[in-house]
Write a structure and sequence with these properties.
Two copies of one chain form a homodimer. Chain A is of the alpha+beta class. Chain A has two domains: about 90 residues, Arc Repressor Mutant, subunit A (Orthogonal Bundle); about 60 residues, Dna Ligase, domain 1. Chain A is about 35% helix and about 15% strand. Chain A contains five helices and five strands. In chain A, the strands form two sheets. The first copy, chain A, has a three-stranded mixed β-sheet. Chain A has a two-stranded antiparallel sheet with strand order 1-2. Chain A is flat, with a radius of gyration of 18 Å. At the A-B interface, β5 of A face β5 of B. β5 of chain A pairs antiparallel with β5 of chain B. Chain B binds a DNA duplex through α2 and α4.
Amino acid sequence: MQKHPDLTSSVHDAGGRMTRQRRVVLEALASVTSHPTAAELYDLVRQRLPGISPGTVYRNLKVLKDLGYVQELDFGADASRFDANVASHYHVRCDCCARVEDIPMQPTVGIEDAQPALTGWQITGHRVEFHGLCPECKAQQAQSHQQEGE
Amino acid sequence: MQKHPDLTSSVHDAGGRMTRQRRVVLEALASVTSHPTAAELYDLVRQRLPGISPGTVYRNLKVLKDLGYVQELDFGADASRFDANVASHYHVRCDCCARVEDIPMQPTVGIEDAQPALTGWQITGHRVEFHGLCPECKAQQAQSHQQEGE
DNA sequence: CTATGTGCAAAGATTTTGCCCATAT
DNA sequence: ATATGGGCAAAATCTTTGCACATAG
């Protein structure tokens, strides 16, 4: 499921240089579906490039985002999360543990019809995020409620 | 358009104490439609309570949010924005100036139908945000493009 | 009176940036 | 060679928190 057939030259074409650090950041992000924070991604990347610095990860995430290779998800969490899947898709976030997952549904196409209500705005996209309790947190909460006798 | 007929007693009922600071924070937020950041709200509140501290504003925003009197909008901006309109509604954010406005449309009710795709999750809500260029930034951008001859 | 809130300032957390060296072209 | 990127550490932001005092109920 390769979204960008030739990452190296594509990114290079866009004006950047595909350094090893940049490639590893992108590959690490593309290799997981967990929507990691920058810090989590830093840990992942360090498994391959032990000497990389956090600043480099942040810098490259910003570059890759500007080039459209990565999207940033900062709905309601302390730290931004990142996603190498830039295709239009929606997310669910757990109110309890802040985990973010993809929603296996087609984007609601008709929603772009809201545009007429936005006089004067030039709309380039929209984001949808559901939130609630993930299966794990739901189970934990059920347990603790039981203990409380509530 | 008063959403909470008796703010003081309601908040008190929920366990908090309606201090002057808390009331002014809530009233200031309710008096604007600009979805201010905590810092902007702090400036607003200081017009009435010059001695208030930023920490108090943050603390009370969190309390009021937990009590359901305020919602926090942290879509893609550096700082969270706050909204005293807790009714379900959508927002537009300007990619250029970060301004946030309400969208004058009814929430897309059918969207909650995505729930079946979320096996094991207990969904409690969803958020929709459009983004693009606000009228002002669109005009500015058109001007600068003209100057560049591009 | 007593629990809760406030002011202040310090600490946390996340992210950005300046500086100088490294590296790709 | 030269421009772009990396490592490091400091700084910038935004937000939270500990503590002593104030205040609502």
